[in-house]
Amino acid sequence: MLGEANRETINVFQKAEAEYKRLVTDIAQRRTIDKTKVDAVVVFLMTASKEKRQEALQRLGGAAVSSEANVVNVIILSTVIGMTLKLSAERINQLATAALLHDIGMVKLPKEQSELLAKSKVTPEQRNAITTHTILGYRAIRRLGYPEEIALVALDHHERWDGSGYPRGLSGEKISDLARIVAVAEAYVSQPNALTKLFGKDRGQFDDRVLKALGNVLEVRPIGREKPPSAEKKGQGGTDMPSGGLSGARVPRPPSGAPQGTISASLESPTKEGEAN
Prior knowledge:
This protein is an all-alpha fold. The chain has one domain: Hypothetical protein af1432 (Orthogonal Bundle). Helix content is 53%, strand content 0%.
């Protein structure tokens, strides 16, 4: 039988899943969003990830049974990776909030477009439709009144270290630091044989420092490499973890005159709190 402590931890996760589902429904129906409930979920999960770390990580052992459970798992793993990287308490709070909201743009996509994410091959037109969810998520988060650092995670979590991601094709440290953590957490949580891919053929797509932190969290000791193929600066993505993790990395703002005119224009949004249209 489950102990009382384990049962309490499971209840926290289930409540978080229910609140996330409610948040998605509210955004889809254009209701006013209560930020205090969002922030409460973040606090619950940060506390559980810190004080009940083993129980939290046990959730990651099996496939998520719902999209809500998947998001909660991403929050847990992102938070523990952030702790491993020795991010400050403020940055971990931002990280957990960003992990909760990172895919909120999917709510804004028509169903037929959101279903494209499950396909391995898509046309250029379909790919453009898929990339839109990152922009929509960025705008929704800014409208809720959250800071740029949190909104950038929604925009950047599909960018890749080697420049192969979207929507802006950023590479290396041009990708926001928190987004690099959420990208690794999401990749681990959402795909089968994740470790084989993350430390194998897909390794060049992710910040090596974050991958090493993931290895520490999961007690995996993969063979390291000196630098990712695209690293150009000394120490970028190297094997040594700087004190303070990624907290000192530059957080870029979306360019106002980027060549991707439709993307940069789409990022402009009002920041009226409580609206996520």
